[in-house]
Amino acid sequence: MEVRVCEPGRILIPFRVGDDTSRTWMFLAEEGRLRFRHDHRHPDGSPEDETLYGGYADDGGTAFVQHFPADEYTGQLIEGGEGNLWTVMISEDLSVFTYRLERDGEKRFRIDFDLTRPLAEAPSDDE
After folding, report:
1. Strand runs (DSSP E) across 18-120, as ranges?
2. Global pTM?
3. What share of the chain has pLDDT > 70, as a percent?
4. If we measure between CA atoms, which residue out of 30, 38, 46 comes closest to residue 12?
């Protein structure tokens, strides 16, 4: 993961799964609420069929943990998606970023990113 855009009202975090760079997490301030979306793109930049799903933060969040129940759009887009709950956490020592997905109360996916290990610098054009 790499925080590429961090500005008032918008944070964009593209991340890679192997060679797949099609995914970006979007945190957006919309009408006084925090919205979490998943932006999925084809290699040419066009949107995938299942994209921009997510939800708004519920009232149970803190400065370090936010919960995002699926919104209506997600429920219509993804079969069973109305039961999705995403939790995004940053450890209090700021060393770990965690993304977790549950569906209908059951854990489906969790990944922890070690924030103490920055991405390696990209090779130069002459390498």
Report:
1. 20-30, 33-40, 53-56, 65-69, 84-90, 96-103, 106-114
2. 0.88
3. 93
4. 38
